[in-house]
Amino acid sequence: MSIVEFRKVTKAFGPVVVLQEVDLSISVGEVVVLIGPSGSGKSTLLRCINALEEITSGDLIVDGISVRAGGSKVRLIRQEAGMVFQQFNLFPQMTALENVAFGLRHVRGIGGKEANKQANALLAKVGLAERGGHYPSELSGGQQQRVAIARALAIKPKLMLFDEPTSALDPELRHEVLQVMRSLAEEGMTMVVVTHEMAFARQVGTRLIFMEGGKITVDGDPKSLLASPDNPRLQEFLQHVE
Ligand code: ADP
Ligand code: MG
Questions:
Q1: In a mutational test of the pocket of ligand 1, which residue from 44, 192, 211, 217 has the highest number of ligand atoms less than 8 Å from its CB?
Q2: pTM of this structure
Q3: What number does the ligand 1 atom closest to the CA of 40 have?
Q4: Tell me: the pLDDT tens digits for 203-223?
Q5: Of the candidates 117, 196, 100, the residue with the CA atom closest to the CA atom of residue 156
Q6: Overall domain count for the chain
Q7: CATH number at residue 235
Q8: Segments forming the whole domain that contains residue 88
Q9: Cα-Cα end-to-end distance for the chain
């Protein structure tokens, strides 16, 4: 069963075409790792999935809802897909607990006490049970990113979108974030992950997609593609990230 389906999706910013007639179908439970040179359209592809960007032509169906449907339907799509960004994007004036409880209260309409209880459980899930009262500025980058993951999970998404979630972190802090992502994958969460972490792609990814110039040029099994990338541009790309 496909949860995301791109049908000849084109996205342009003015005269600049960023996605070119992309066809892509993602099934429930897949862990898709998306790689490609800077500017190839990876972030834009993710942002189209949760309707942060409007597509220019074609159609994109997320859990049975077209992003073209507009209005309240688009809000539904945003609730299907949780997003985690490179720069964490936590609310700086709220504690970790408040950051996570925010979505529970405002998106899912859950009241204060119950929201806090669920938020605490989500913080425990990402290994931060003791950190609920801390402000983002009092947490390490890896901890902040784990709060951001808990916050995204609070809306009970059917799929999770990660845009270079470890790129802003020092190497020694990446592992704790990747570990949380790995657990999510093991629980069966459908995920689309833009990352340069090829070990994660190999060990956790069920599918590897390489984008160039707004097109998907390679799509296959991560282990075999990483072991023997036949595509010369993928080969060259991998030499620079590994
Ligand atoms: P990637 O994530 O692969 O680096 P992006 O999806 O961020 O690529 O960007 C793809 C292309 O789209 C780039 O050339 C970028 O400059 C352009 N682009 C992205 N967002 C916008 C925007 N809001 N307005 C104009 N151009 C944009
Ligand atoms: Mg990007």
A1: 44
A2: 0.96
A3: 3
A4: 999 999 999 999 999 999 999
A5: 100
A6: 1
A7: 3.40.50.300
A8: 2-92+156-241
A9: 33
In a domain, 146, yes or no: no
Nearest to 192 by CA among 221, 163, 226: 163
Nearest CA to ligand 1 atom 5: 41
* Residues in the chain, total: 242
Ligand 1 atom with the smallest distance to the CA of 194 is: 2
Mean pLDDT, the chain, as a whole number? Answer: 95
Cβ–Cβ under 8 Å, residues 149 and 178: no
Ligand located closest to 38 CA: 1
Ligand 1 atom at minimum distance from 53 CA: 23
Q: What is the DSSP letter of 158?
A: S
| Residue 7 scores a pLDDT above 70 | yes
In this structure, the residues whose C-beta lies within 6 A of any atom of ligand 1 are 13, 16, 18, 36, 38-44
Q: What is the pairing mode between strands 31-35 and 190-194? A: parallel
User: Which numbered ligand comes closest to the C-alpha of 164?
Assistant: 2
Q: Which ligand is nearest to the CA of 215?
A: 1
Q: Rounded to a whole number, what is the largest CA-CA distance in the chain?
A: 56
